[in-house]
Structures are given as C-alpha cells and as structure tokens.
Specification:
This protein is an alpha+beta fold. The protein folds into 2 domains: 164 residues, Major capsid protein gp5 fold, CATH 3.30.2400; 111 residues, 2-Layer Sandwich (capsid protein of prophage fold). It is 25% helix and 26% strand. The longest helix is centred in the middle third of the chain and has 23 residues. The N and C termini lie far apart (56 Å). InterPro entries: Phage_P2_GpN. This is Phage major capsid protein, P2 family.
C-alpha cells in the first residue's frame, strides 16, 4: 500500500479508536470500544436513515432489561360519585436482551492502492459500511429465527441463524394475543380461501386490536406481493430504505422494506418495531494483515429486535397469488 494512504487511514482510525498508535511506516490498530464522541456520531448517522426515523431505536445502558412496550391508552369516563378513577397500565411486560452481532470484512492491498490516486477511500468505505450495517440489521430483523454460536452463511444465506428477529418473535407470541395473529395463508385467488388480497387484509385487520388498526398502520409487503406497482415519488437527499407504493390493500398503505420475505405481509405501525442497542459496547478496529495482503475491518455491536406490542400487528405468511 502507498505511504500516503497508510497515513490517511491511520489518521481516520485514530479518530474513533483511542488506543491506535499512528505510524508513518504502515497501518496499526486495535479492536476496542469506540469513544463516546464517535459513538454519538455513529448514532446521529443511524438516525438520519428514513426507516430508523419511523421505527424505534433505543440506546440502553444495560445489555438486558425491561422493554418500553408502550400500549395505546383508550379514553374513558368515571363516575367519581361512585368510584375512583383507575389509571390504566401504559406498557407491556416485555424484555430485551442485546447480543453481539459482528460485521467483519477485509480489503485487499491492491484494492486499497487503486484508491490512492483518487484520495477518497475513507469516504467511500464509510458510506459503504454504514449502508451495509443498516442492511444487515434488517436482514437479521426480518429473517432471523435463532442464534448459533458460529453462524453459517452457506447454510443460512439470509442470516437466519444470527439472532431472533421481529417476525420470529411474532410467530412465537402469536397465541398470547388471543386472536392468533399469524396466518398461514396459502393460495389467494379463485381456488383459495381468500379470493383477493383486499379480502385477506380485511380478515387480518380483525386480528389486530381495534385501537391499533387506525393511525400509522402500514402493510409491509414482500416483492411477490407488490409485483409491478408504482412507487410514490419522494424528494430526499438521503437514500431511501422505505419504498412507499401508490396503492393500498384493504385500505392500508403499502410499503416495501429491504430483505422482507417475498411472500409475506406484516400489518403494523413501524413504531411497533424497535431496535435496542447496548451503549458503550460498539467495538471497531482495523488490523493490518501483511501475511495475507489485506486490511481487516472488524465491527460488533450488541442489539435486540423487539416487537413492542403483539396486539398491534398481524403476520401473513406463505401467500401464493394465483395467476
């Protein structure tokens, strides 16, 4: 690698890792917890994303504890001549458990050298890394079904073995709602139980508590459900993770999110889905590997995927649209 690029990378590394010792003759680094200033910058960058502005992102002091689990409070009256007013519980008894997820990669020296003339490697890599970090959060959030000690992307190409995600938790808690809000749909069409997607959505809405079926409810749809529908045009300086369609299903606005299962629909408010992040446990490091001719990049954070209220959602799976 070229000396100028080495020095630039060392300067960049030194911004967020306090144990790095910049050297003029090459890259050196350690994997360690990022400083609070750099963690704040990371959080600010995360919150610029359109999806995470609508979902909840909670930064927690402890690795595990009680989730917020906020519930909608219905207006009511009390005849205080006869009874006292009784406050209603404003939260569920849910918990979170943040566990480590890694996002490790390497860049070969010849690739680094190709950026030397341009002088923009750091900017390109940081933008690339931020995008793929968020993509991987959604990949696990929508496809994770369990956690193995060592994940195997060859066997589980959608990170199913990294951690339990939103949909798996909805499946496991379906019976607790009393309305069985997970539906194994099958065929939709003339030979199916539901003749149209609109009728399917209308049925699914009956499995959500009425107070949660109004404001903010969306239908997150996989690509097999969406087909070739038109996308609503939105002006933005930032890349969009939420794709909004110019249509509704059963009166519910339709959105598309990366890595959502292709033949499924989730009815929920986006704010019902939460990413919990354990603060002061974001670790990052660059390690020079001259014996292998590459620069290794290690990143880990401790997170959990929490559905705040299982009464406020319905999951429709294995949908097969007839031609």
């Amino acid at each position: 690698m070229k000396l100028a690029l080495d020095m630039a990378l060392n300067k960049h590394i030194n911004k967020f890792i306090h144990t790095v010792e910049p050297k003029d003759d090459g890259i050196t680094g350690h994997i360690t917890t990022v400083e609070s200033e750099q963690e704040k910058a990371f959080i600010d960058k995360l919150m610029q994303n359109d999806l995470f502005q609508e979902m909840n992102v909670f930064f927690t002091k402890h690795a595990q504890g009680e989730a917020f689990g906020l519930v909608e409070i219905m207006a009511g009256t009390t005849d205080t001549n006869r009874d006292e007013r009784v406050p209603k519980k404003a939260h569920n008894d849910l918990s979170y458990f943040c566990q480590q997820i890694n996002l490790d990669s390497y860049i070969r020296y010849d690739k680094l050298d190709s950026f030397n003339a341009e002088g923009n490697f750091i900017e390109v890599f940081e933008n690339y890394f931020q995008k793929h970090l968020l993509n991987n959060a959604l990949l696990v959030g929508f496809n994770g079904v369990g956690r193995n000690g060592t994940s195997d992307p060859e066997v589980f190409p959608l990170a199913q073995d990294v951690q339990k995600g939103f949909l798996q938790k909805i499946r496991e808690n379906a019976q607790t709602t009393g309305k069985n809000n997970v539906m194994d749909v099958g065929k939709v069409g003339e030979s199916g139980q539901y003749k149209t997607l609109h009728k399917l959505i209308k049925e699914a809405l009956t499995r959500i508590e009425p107070i949660y079926s109004g404001y903010g409810l969306v239908a997150i749809c996989g690509r097999e459900i969406i087909g070739d529908n038109l996308i609503a045009q939105e002006d933005s300086k930032h890349p969009k993770f939420i794709t909004r369609l110019q249509k509704t299903l059963g009166g519910v606005p339709v959105v598309s999110l990366p890595y959502f299962p292709e033949n499924a629909i989730l009815l929920t408010r986006l704010e019902n889905l939460s990413l919990y992040v354990h603060r002061h446990n974001i670790r990052r490091g660059f390690l020079n590997q001259p014996g292998k001719d590459y620069l290794a990049h290690y990143f880990s954070w401790c997170v959990d995927f929490v559905v705040e209220n299982y009464n406020a959602c319905a999951l429709l799976e294995n949908i097969k649209l007839e031609e």
